[in-house]
Design a protein that fits this description.
Strand order of the largest sheet: 1-2
Distance between the termini: 50 Å
Number of helices: 11
Structural class: mainly alpha
Number of strands: 2
Radius of gyration: 23 Å
Order of helices and strands: HHHHHHEHHHHEH
Strand content: under 5%
Largest sheet: 2 strands, antiparallel
Helix content: 55-70%
Length: 341
């Protein structure tokens, strides 16, 4: 066993002044460790979506009636508050686990050699989203589960998942300029897919805000829209996303695109089919809680799959290499759609 070096006063001062630099000077994680840290942040972001859904679906949204304390007299849930208090307080505690996962991702990214500022910034972006969303979650409680604040809370979590997914992808590639693997037409199609997916998520929050699962057994304000109509709009947007995904897969096959974009598109299509099946079953069975919870989980997984399709359209080499001369091509040709290989 190696002897641990003594911690000098200068070391202690350095650790207090800049703990991340202090750790980075003494620890170099492997690339796999950095990737796992980034993946852990994604997993915890999805877990927060699922547990937040459990809070709403069990009517525990006001299990802790105030914030930042659980009650005016107690920081934690008490036995008298019952199961609702335990569920709501447990979800609050999971925020600390999420912070730990994001913190690990930041430390691992900061300690990687060579230092990658862009990767560390993605970690810090997650941290500030988590902090702001925690405050927003407190506001949700203080305003009695106002549906607009609940929707904003979910949208912020979706933004967190997006940043975490980008960071995870960046841990597995270099820092050179991105090189497109497909042509401009395909990239535009994927951006339409991303835009439709964002609309699908936003309309989904309206379905939730107008639907029967208000988050608490007491009288809770709902969005003043017709739930049936907004649900049908949500279904139409879902079919648009499915259609765009199928069209993308067809185009990628037609132009003999690389396997990366093809595989990610295939994964997204299968996830969309499963998510759609759950959505229709829950609609025709009067929204059982377990299926609504699965649908929320599927929403997070679908969003990750959409982003992975977008990120699969380019590659970054580990080291910058001189650009090779490319033959000119016509945007209307299959070679243009496929892009540089």
């Amino acid at each position: 066993m190696e002897r641990v070096p003594n911690l000098t006063r200068a070391d202690a001062v350095a650790a207090v002044r800049n703990p991340l630099a202090f750790i980075a000077a003494r620890w170099t994680p492997t690339p796999r460790t950095v990737q796992r840290a980034a993946l852990a942040a994604i997993v915890m972001s999805v877990v927060i979506v699922v547990t937040g859904g459990a809070v709403r679906l069990t009517g525990s949204g006001l299990g802790c009636p105030t914030w930042p304390k659980c009650t005016d007299d107690s920081l934690t849930a008490t036995r008298e508050m019952g199961l609702h208090g335990f569920i709501e307080f447990g979800n609050r505690m999971l925020t600390y686990v999420l912070c730990a996962a994001v913190g690990w991702a930041i430390i691992a990214a900061r300690s990687e050699k060579p230092y990658r500022r862009s990767l560390t910034r993605l970690g810090w972006a997650q941290f500030w989203i988590v902090m702001s969303n925690a405050v927003l979650g407190g506001i949700v409680v203080l305003v009695g589960l106002n549906p607009y604040t609940v929707a904003a809370h979910f949208v912020a979590t979706s933004a967190l998942i997006a940043v975490a997914t980008v960071m995870w992808q960046r841990t597995r590639e270099g820092d050179s300029e991105p090189r497109p693997l497909v042509g401009k037409a395909v990239r535009q199609l994927v951006w339409f897919l991303v835009g439709a997916s964002v609309l699908l998520i936003l309309v989904g929050t309206v379905v939730t805000g107008a639907g029967p699962h208000a988050g608490d057994s007491s009288e809770v304000e709902r969005m003043p829209v017709d739930w049936e109509n907004v649900t049908k709009l949500h279904a139409v947007l879902a079919w648009i996303v499915v259609t765009l995904t199928f069209a993308l897969w067809f185009v990628l096959k037609a132009v003999d695109a690389p396997k990366g974009p093809l595989n990610r598109t295939r994964d997204l299509f299968l996830i969309l089919l499963a998510q759609g099946a759950i959505g229709y079953v829950q609609y025709f069975t009067d929204l059982p809680e377990i299926l609504v919870g699965l649908h929320m989980f599927g929403s997070a997984v679908t969003w990750i799959a959409v982003l992975r399709v977008l990120l699969a359209l380019r590659e970054r080499a580990a080291e910058s290499v001189p650009d090779l001369p490319l033959q000119p091509y016509d945007e209307a040709t299959s070679a243009s759609i496929a892009g540089p290989r």
